[in-house]
Amino acid sequence: MTDVLIDLTDGVLQIRLNRPARKNALSQQMYRDMNAALQRAAEDSSIKVVLLQGADDCFSAGNDLKDFLAAGVLDAEHPTVQFLYLLAQCPKPLIAAVSGLAIGIGTTALLHCDLVYAADSARFQLPFTQLGVCPEAASSLLLPRLVGYQRAAQYLLLGESFDAAQGYTMGLVNQVVTNAELDALAWQKAQQLAALPADAVQTSKALLKAGSQDVTATIAAELVQFQRLLDGDDCQQRIAGFFKR
Q1: Which of 5, 55, 73, 148 has a Cα at 20 to 30 A from 19?
Q2: Which whole number is the average pLDDT over 43-51?
Q3: Residue 7: strand pairing partners
Q4: Cα separation of 56 and 147, whole Å?
Q5: Per-residue confidence at 189, pLDDT binned at 50, 70, 90?
């Protein structure tokens, strides 16, 4: 059974994480599958919208640390790095439907989505410093823009978690519903977007994103520091402690 389910229906490309036994922790193969889907979405005119989904109890627990560490240096060939840029530069509207845990990149990826819908079970956390590393996916730029510096520092420096209601209040989440309602709402919004003139929607997205042209530069700068910290003693000790739990 594949860990990423891809389906194209009525102009909506659904990317559903499907690794429940590991709480949708992202492996390098999962990144490769998502990268292929995002590349397809960028190039295929029949795809109007991309919908990212997880399981009822977990959107994503973040990176599969063992797999991530085994993948080598964070360069242009690294599937995780490729995913960050493909997500940030996706020309089609991105919708996320989030329930349960959204940890690390499970939260930072949402900063690149155009619409985010969450179940009341959603729990978000950015525990980078707790692992001895730093923010990624341009979250050091995008989160302060969205929620203000002090609140961003609360989540990026202290690594404190927040729930769906807090995500809605700060503007990360568009709407909060029950778990049972989430998929239907996300699909409804995806169909609504897909029914609109594609050129108008994609041009509007490009204009909305025009003020964030420094996102790719921020991703690159973060990756340099992330790799430096990843190789350091503090991070190695924290990760070793994580695996001993």
Answers
A1: 73
A2: 98
A3: 14
A4: 26
A5: very high
In angstroms, the Cα distances linking 239 to 73, 129, 183 are: 17, 11, 34
Structure tokens at 99: 């329930």
Fold assignment, 4-177: 2-enoyl-CoA Hydratase; Chain A, domain 1 (3.90.226)
Q: Which of 118, 104, 226, 120 is nearest to 155 (CA)?
A: 104
Write down the pTM of the prediction: 0.96
HSE-CB for 72 with a 13 A CA cutoff: 5
* Domain residue spans of the chain: 4-177
Q: Which tens digit of pLDDT belongs to each residue from 142-172?
A: 999 999 999 999 999 999 999 999 999 999 9
Q: Report how far residue 129's alpha carbon sits from residue 160's, in angstroms, rounded to the nearest whole number.
A: 11
Indicate whether 245 pLDDT > 90.
no
What is the secondary structure of the chain as a DSSP string? --SEEEEEETTEEEEEE--GGGTTPBPHHHHHHHHHHHHHHHH-TT--EEEEE--SSEEE--B-HHHHHHT-S-STT-HHHHHHHHHHT--S-EEEEE-SEEETHHHHGGGG-SEEEEETT-EEE--TGGGT----TTHHHHHHHHH-HHHHHHHHTS---EEHHHHHHHTS-SEEE-HHHHHHHHHHHHHHHHTS-HHHHHHHHHHHHGGGTTHHHHHHHHHHHHHHHHTSHHHHHHHHHHHH-
